Amino acid sequence: MADIAELTALIEPEVKALGFDLVRVRLFGSGDDHTLQIMAENPKTKQLVIEDCATISRRLSDVLDEADPIEEAYRLEVSSPGIDRPLTRLHDFQEWAGHEAKIAATELVEGRKSFRGVLNGVEGEDILFADAKAGDVRIPFALVHDAKLLLTDKLISATMPLSSDGADEFETEE
Question: b/e for 101-136, b at 16 or more Cβ within 10 A?
Answer without folding.
Answer: bebebeeebeeeeebebbbbebeeebbbbebeebee
